[in-house]
Amino acid sequence: MPKKHKGLLLTFCCILLLSIITAGCGGGQSGSTDEAGNEHITLEFWTIALQPTFNDYFNTLIAEYEKDHPNVKIEWKDYPYDAITDKLLTSIASGGSPDVVNLNTEFASQMGSKGAVVDLNEYLSDEQKGAYFEGIFNSTVIDGKAYALPWYTGTEVLFINTKIAKEAGLDPSNPPATREELAEWGRQVKAKTGKAGYAQQLVSKLFPIEGVSILTEDKTAAAFNTPEAVAMINNMKKLMDEGVIIKEDANFTKQIQYYSGEQTAFQLGGPTFINFIKTAAPDVYKNTIAVPLPTGQGDLRLSNSMNLVVPAKSEHPKEAVEFAAFVTNAENQTSFSKAANTLPSTKASIQDPFFSETDGSLEAQAKVVSAQSLAKATDYMVGVPNAQDVNSAIARGLQNILLNGQDAQKTLNEVEQEVNGILQQ
């Protein structure tokens, strides 16, 4: 799901629809009872942008589940990244509700903080919850309530176009280990080739990467308005002015375009990035290597996870949680990761040799490098109430400073007030 902001109208609509969710009528799924008195139910399962590529995987998965649960039928629906949020809110507000839904961490947390999804603690054992990497599982735990089961995930690596790096006189076999070193590499690329270092999206994760907390420890107030944050932003502005970082709020699609067009030498992203450059620019793909992500002052390993949630208006929450736990168990996560070039969020999965062995391909390089950081990985919006709104407010502030020339301190003062207001909603 993209993190581009849709403005105040979307925020207003989300608040309105979420208020309907928590106050409206029950879900639209129905069950039936056979002559022997056994209940037969249908669970509606929504995913994001997985059809038709993974039809065989999910058809087999669903058939296996239905065979072991003869009273349950799974109805699988798939929606594009840019449609599922509005589709979900509209569906629930109109009186219907899917039962298991694929959401990113940001929106899963947003839904949880509004009481719009089930607290999974009511249905899962400690053993089941302990199967997932702690930092990733806790990303959607708010005030002790667990609002999502982590599914497929990824941690970022650094992709290097070795052709451009060598043209700039850099040695790809000795890659940058820190953000400062990456900036120096970008300066050298710019000076020797005229190309930029990399592009990035202006989102709130830029703060914790450099050791600046987004919220206070108790998640009740903004904590990012600090001298360190001002210095970090001003340094980023300097890098943009020098051409080290492209001066743009570049979403994932734009980053692909810049890298595949050899306008940038580096890409900070997850292993799924490979799927796009392999198709869009096979020559660039052949010249690309994957190495550990350079760390900032925060020395964090950030995950970018997809999750499964059970909307509060599902008519069959117990069965829905059981199915979500089945989809995200270690065995099925391992299988899906092998099919989709993703990483699992389950501890047992990572013991499979698949995640530590490499055949020298770019996919294998990225997989191994990314997998090594899973045990330390966490989402940058861990337990943040109203996460989507908080991220949008910070992103707008960064845009105003870095792209529109507004004063960093004055803008951070304003964003701090806005975020504090959001947290009080």
UniProtKB/TrEMBL annotation:
It comes from the Bacteria. Residues 1-23 form the signal peptide. Pfam families: SBP_bac_1. The keyword Signal applies. Residues 398-425 form a coiled coil. Keywords: Coiled coil, Signal. The keyword Plastid does not apply. This is ABC transporter substrate-binding protein. It comes from Paenibacillus terreus. The lineage of its organism: Bacteria, Bacillati, Bacillota, Bacilli, Bacillales.
